Every structure is written in structure tokens, then in C-alpha cells.
Amino acid sequence: MTIFHLSKTSRQTVYLLDTNIVSEFRKKSRMNKGVQAFFSEAAKDNQQLYLSVITIGELRRVVEIVEIMSRQTSWKYGLAKLRQNIAVTSFLSPN
What we know:
alpha+beta
């Protein structure tokens, strides 16, 4: 678990979260118990949590990759269906 403790003032602690923590948070019920406890405690204490520009960029890249993979899967499915329809049509068509 990578959570950077940036500073501690008399009133509030500030944390910089790494990409793996944000990714873990996304898992909801399957989330690591330590990460879950950290977020629960942070929410209870109204702590400020921050993301670096690098973390935001890494998360954005993951979203882009997932979108590309999703489109490729859709294209593959569409091509498979098209091939199937062409094969059926060719089989049924009289020569």
C-alpha cells in the first residue's frame, strides 16, 4: 500500500494517494482490508486526500486502454457475426 504522508498540521493530515490505492478503491467489496480501513478512517476524520498529476495520467491511460480493448472486442464480435452470416448466405444460395 502506497500512501504518502505529506504534512501534518495541528488540525489536519494530508495524504497523496498512489495509483495502486485508487485502483484498489475501485474494487469495492473485494478491496484490500488495509485500504478499506484507511478510506474509512479518512472519511471519518474528514481528511484531505490528493492525487498527483502522474497518478491522474496513469489512471487516464488505463481508461483509454480499456476503451480500446472494448472497441476491439466489439469489432471482433461484429466480424465474427458477419463471417457467420456470409457463410450461411453462401450455403443457402443456389449456384
